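Running this now, will post back.
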Amino acid sequence: MHDPAAATDDMLLAAAARGDEAAFARLLERHGKRALAVATRFLGSASDAEEVVQEAFWRVWSTAGRWRPGEAAFPTWLHRVVVNLCIDRERRAKLRRFFSLEAVPEPAEEAAPADRQVEAAGELAQVMADIRRLPGKQRAALLLAASGEHSNQAIATMLGVSEKAVESLLVRARRSLRSEARRRLGEEQ
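Update: finished.
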């Protein structure tokens, strides 16, 4: 491929299928940061997110020859792969915790010294913990919608559900988060 920067995603995938590493690198450059952002928001761990994105792009490289242009937009397909890998990773983690194979928790990051920053970080940590406790599809829908980059129709395509199902997932996720916030406020008073 002469100019990977000017090529469409479909053209880059076709070139990657022929072993063109520059074309694959261009796909990674175009879509890697956004995929990493989705995985990081979903999993809450940068290192886990990086592993998921690496796996997703390994799948891109290994299946590029089966890509059918026009069936779906590449970013939509990639986000679906990333979300599914995140859901799978969490299922495996829950199973390991259930069987006590993951007994040692991750060390907590040090908090900022200012009182308000500590309080805000605590509130954010609580909300993020609430989000991580949501069922996988609810969390995926909520995080994809919160980015502001995707319509409900695009989210539906990424998750493999109907647009109505996305709306329902969002309503249930937001209801659960509000309920948890009210519960915490009630405990503090």
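The longest helix spans residues 163-188. More later if anyone needs it.
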